[in-house]
């Protein structure tokens, strides 16, 4: 049975989708941009600021779904500019330290709200 994840600690959906869903023992998050949930605006103009905020948002959605960074099985990272890859990796490594999840990373033409990064995940409930 599908359960909808909703938390005010991460930005609300900016379209017809939910922050995430839970089905059985799996948690599926929607892509998280670097949006500050308190202001509804990007956390800053740099890839560093947006990556840190996107990962914080991801953590809040995971938590609301009964998971956390340690139970993430797979992430997908969307970058506006692949030259930001090394910077994103350095920040990402602060959140995923051991037994890292599988990951795909793509450069895309554009992201909502002019974002520089978007991250989604599939995790197992704790």
Strand content: 25-35%
- Number of strand elements: 9
- CATH fold label: 60s Ribosomal Protein L30, Chain: A
Number of helices: 2
CATH architecture: 2-Layer Sandwich
Largest sheet: 7 strands, mixed
Given helix and strand content, the structural type is: alpha+beta
Order of helices and strands: EEEEEEHEHEE
Q: Uncertain segments of ≥5 residues (pLDDT<50)? A: none
Structural summary, described in words:
The protein has 126 residues and is α+β, with helices and mostly antiparallel strands. It has one domain (2-124): 2-Layer Sandwich (60s Ribosomal Protein L30, Chain: A). The protein contains 2 helices and 9 strands. Strands 1, 2, 3, 4, 7, 8 and 9 form a 7-stranded mixed beta sheet that branches. It has a two-stranded antiparallel ribbon with strand order 5-6. The chain is globular and about 40 Å long. The model has no long low-confidence stretch (mean pLDDT 97).
Structural descriptors:
single chain, 126 residues, alpha+beta, two-stranded antiparallel sheet, 9 strands, 23% helix, globular
Can you summarize this structure?
Helix content is 23%, strand content 32%.
Per-chain topology:
Blueprint: E1 2-5, E2 20-23, E3 26-29, E4 32-33, E5 35-36, E6 41-42, H1 47-64, E7 72-79, H2 85-95, E8 102-107, E9 117-124
Parallel strand pairs: 7-8
Antiparallel strand pairs: 1-2, 2-3, 3-9, 4-9, 5-6, 7-9
Helix pairs in contact: 1-2
